[in-house]
Amino acid sequence: MLLGVHLIVRNEELHLAQCLDSIRQWADELIVVDTGSSDQTVQIAASRGAHIVHMAWADDFAQARNFGIGQARTLWVLVLDADERLADGTDMLQLRNKLLHSKETAYRVVVESTVERQCIRHEAVRLFRADQGYRYVGAIHEQLATSVSGAWRDVDGPLSDIRLQHHGYEPGELARKRTAERNGCIIRKLLEGQPDNPFHWYNLGVTLSQQAKAAEASAAFARARAIVSPDAPFRPSLMLDSARALLASGEEGAALELLTNESKRYINYADLQLLYGECLERQGAWLEAKQAYTTAIEASQVDNGLYLTESDVNCRACTALAGLERRLGNQKEAARRYEQALLADLGWPEALEGLAELLHEAGGSDSAIAQTLVRYAGLESKENRAGDARAERNGVEKLRSLAHALTLIGAYSSAVPLWRQAVVIASASASEPADAVASFSACLIRTGQYAEAAEVLASMARDMGSLPMTAGMDWALCSWMEGRRLPLSAEHLLDASTLLLCQAAERRLLGHRQHAAADASESGEAVGSIGSEGGADGIDGAVMLMERAVSHGLLRIAERLAGSSEERFAVSLHRHGYTTAAADRLLRMMGTGHLGARGLRTLGEMLYGRQLYSESLSLYERAVQHQPDDEHARLGAASASIRLAVQALTEREEERSAAAWLTEERKRLEMAVIRLESLGWRTMRSGAQRRRMSDGGAAEADFLMHDREG
Amino acid sequence: MAARRKLISLCMIVKDDEQGLARCLRSVQGIVDETIVVVDSSSVDRSADVARSYGAHVIERAWTGDFAAARNAGLEVARGEWILILDADEEFSEVTAASLRPLALDGHSVAGWLLPVWNMLGTDEEDGATINPVLRLFRNDPNHRFEGRIHEQIAVAILRANPDARLALGEVIIRHYGYRPSVVAEKNKIRRNMELLLQAVEEEPDNPFHRYNLGVEFLRAGRPLDALLSFREAKKTPSFNQLSYAHLVCKYEVRSLHSLGRWKEAVDAAEEGIRLFNDYADLWHTLAESMSRIGRRHSAIMAACYALRIGQPKGIYHTEDGMGSHRTAYMLGILYEIAGSYDAAAHWYSTTLTMKPSLLPPLHRLCRMFRVVGRSSELPVMIERRFTLSTEEASIKIASVLLDSGCTAEAILWLRRRAAEPAWGTASSSWLVLAEASHAAAEGHLAEACRRAIRAIGAVSSETPGAVAGARAGDGASASASASASASARYSSGEYGAAAAYERLTSLRRWLRAVGVGSDEEFGGVDAGSLPLSSTDEENGASSAGYGLAPIMKGAVSTNDAGLLEQVLKQVLASVADGTDAAAQSGSAALAAYADCHLGEAERLLAARTASSATRQVLRSVRLLLAGCERGE
């Protein structure tokens, strides 16, 4: 007989049928080693004609595998896991022919795993001759090996055409089977015997990461790093996973240091370069990040089989690079990279969002932008979707991404129908993800459909049993806009602090004054405090609600919520794009000498935006004098002075001469100011906010300008 | 005369270059025994007359589009034992010219000498040069005739006549000015060469030499893509690596890729070239450059180190001044600076200075870098340890760099430490006063800075009343003319003399007054422009016109006086927009200094909050950029 398929199983009733059905017509023999199933596993295997052997589980995968191989009556053995299946499109007939005449003794196969949306691909030796004396070694992550003069050596061979699909890493399943924990037990046991084995420490780190124990994982990875040999094949993955664990436990500095070193060594490891770039970008090192992303893209285009890599790394790196190019003002390059990302992965949400912003910045109309986005969204026609639950779920996701991108740029009327469509399709399947609901409800609020928004939020609350804080605040705002009080159900659907906050705000809106302290004229410190506590919570809470209201353009309610926190209100107006109204208020406050560091800085930024650098500089200078440790104001002051120099140099170039030193000096200064932008001292604008700045929001803010101090 | 044995005949061909010809003939006077100049008969200037005035034998001849033929016309009449070939845009370097005759006298077994041609990129050697050994002195023999229409060659003929002929390397340096971009453009040489070369390539498409030369012309003409294609074509020749100029093809291929911004390919090309010419420092240097551009800083550093280990190429390699030595060391410093390894960077900057003491940029970078990273206090001792300074000028030069880099305290320290040395003079004490006044200003003690400046200027004007425009009554009578003259001489000794310090002090005082520090009364009768400026120093005066803005700006920030700051900003902006070039530069630098004050503070704040290293690195790099250090990218 030519080909036997070998599995070891325990309680695999969920997957086993699918696995065996995908392969059994090509196998001359199915050998299933059961290590003590208590479910239908054995019956399923038997019904597919498998030869079943029983064996007691001894915390050792290799032992179980070897037991199965010992039973083989075929020339070749293909090893599968129960949660894998043969991918469609593998030409097994041809493979069998190849095996008949093959001079090889082993082959590698491709294994594709799906984790959330991401596909991970790796290669493993799974197909080999049964008559070579090959054996598995290693209690977990067992490796096929051959005995050469008493020592075990890994077996390798060329790549075959077999592709396997693996479902074992999906988080839901992970929890169900508690694989991670089981593996953890095995590994700890192994470590007792071999405390100096870096691979075991690495595996321990991986299982701890899967259990979301980032700090413990970090410690295990650190042990592995300390003793791993420089050429160990798992070293690249170890470094990447280490960095991720460090990031997850908040040790950004250590992660960056690690990545800085390792990115030099593994230039072609796309995933590592991408993570390095992300770290750098977060810290404002844009030029360096750009370099890392470019390296990642290049690396992702050559599959050298050396590294465990995720299939969407190219798309993610392109999107990240595009985002940087956009902020650096290289619109053309940004567009090219977004397109590259979307062509690699149609409908990739972040790329779609970025592209929408880019098109909006360039002045595209909503309908034109929507049309372009649809082309890249990867929506399939209904006919293709019908009936297939997976395709259906996928379709809804794409629709939501598209709707979300349009919401971000404030194209609400284009977005709302898409949101509704997504809701209709999705209603049959699982509940909506929270961020989608939040985005949908924002869309409704901003188009004045408060009742429907409240309904969407309430239904999410019922589905999930509770609401995130921001969604809770939105719900409250919707009720108030409808002229109603907080619904009774809020009392058990909102968490305690959100509820307290909303109730306090509601009393204020109804005109109840809690304490004399709330009155600004009486107390300078507790300005704007609402709620009986009157502490920091109260202030922050009220400001958060006000902020939220401003973000939705609900300015009247926001003004009342702000109470006497005038400066904060003005700053918030600025932050969300109501610049004219904000400037008006801030200038008025400055006139009466009531403007603090925050307001001065905000005003400085506005003037900077209008290229009034001299004025901007003096405001920043005053902000610094108010508050010397405000680095944003310092960065602003520095940027304004450099802009001033650039302006003066440009003037000189135009009017007097175009000497080489002038151009050089100007370029150098421009480069410096661009580098400073990356440190995040300026407000980043979304499309929705840009609309308000140009004039779309003026109507909402009108009353702030005219009926002041009535 | 006739009986005298003729040892060396200089043979030249020339067209419309009377000035160059004169320079060239001057440089060979007393060295060659006869001069034969073939003048293109279409020449319109006085080239032939100039040649005759130096006693040359002039042959006027129509241009046939063939360089070899023109040269050979000269060789036909030469009677010396040796033929020396020079072009009108070349000259002998004075230092080495004397060793030419020994080459001809002693070279019994030698058929020809290769002499290093330095292709000057500027007017003097400090601007850099490329160095190319070329066969320029060879035995006079009827078989030795030039071949090749453009880029005519003699070596082939010599070796054909005697396959065992020995060619040796001589030390006499020929300076060639023809490659200076301005001169090249002037003469439309590029276009002419290109036409000839294109024709040659058409006639002999397989000749790699034409391809190579064409590539060089393309590169010079700013057409890197065409250049690249030419070089790649040349590389296709069988047994390419046997060609004497193969190493240059490799280097220029990398250069073309640099111009095209194709850095990654440049790395590959450089590596390929290194496989053939492992000991050619230029290739390692360009490899390092390419690698640093694609972010492979670590590999770049390794490659640069390797170039340094090889050292400046010798023998048949064509190289550029500083490859494998000071230029590579400077690059290494920059690479380390970008990487944030400031000690290593400092080491390489000072190594650069040891290799080429006249270079100022590395010293500037060193000082600015140490100021930005807050380690400027180490500078005086470090410079002292690294360099042996014998002259007062050298010491003041360093003080001046320290001042320009914003290291005022260190400039004071540096100068005070020199006071006990024999090289200390009036100039040094003037610069010390300047450093003290600048430092006072930068610390925010503007009134004190003003007082110091006035006192110093007052002292000078009373000493040299003859030179003071509005001399005060009484002083003029008592001063003798000779005292005045000697004082003037003392104060006008060039860029680093006392006068230069006083000009800066005047400028500082003028700016102080402009921002409202010090009353007019305090200035007394001493007005701007009343300093002892000799006519040659006027340029220096103009170049120091912006001095003082940066320290005043720094001082204004530290005083926290909004009104003062506004005043300073007003002056700075006005000087950038309407001042002289020097004032505009200083104004721009002052704005950068203002930004630096805030960025330095931001850096300190971030460090205190244990913020990320990358963010601080960004701030550092911006500050270095503002200080005038390019990132090299």
Assembly state of the chains shown:
heterodimer
CATH fourth-tier homologous superfamily of the domain at 3-177 in chain A = Spore Coat Polysaccharide Biosynthesis Protein SpsA, Chain A
* Amino-to-carboxy terminus distance of chain B: 62 Å
Number of helices of chain B: 31
The rounded distance between the terminal residues' Cα atoms of chain A is 95 Å
Question: Per CATH, which architecture of the domain at 8-182 in chain B?
Answer: Alpha-Beta Complex
Strand content of chain A: 5-15%
Structural class of chain A: alpha/beta
**Residue runs with pLDDT of under 50 for 5 or more positions of chain A:** 514-538
Please state the overall shape of chain A, judged from the principal axes of the Cα atoms: globular
Radius of gyration of chain A: 31 Å
- The pLDDT mean of chain A sits at 84
By DSSP, the count of extended strands of chain A is 12
Question: How many strands in all of chain B?
Answer: 10
Largest β sheet strand count, sense and barrel closure of chain A = 9 strands, mixed
> What amount of the residues of chain B lies in strands?
5-15%
The share of residues in helices of chain A is 55-70%
Q: Report Rg of chain B.
A: 30 Å
CATH class bucket of the domain at 3-177 in chain A: Alpha Beta
Protein name (chain B): Glycosyltransferase
Organism (chain B): Paenibacillus terricola
Pfam family, one (chain B): Glycos_transf_2
Domain Glycosyltransferase 2-like (chain B): 9-94
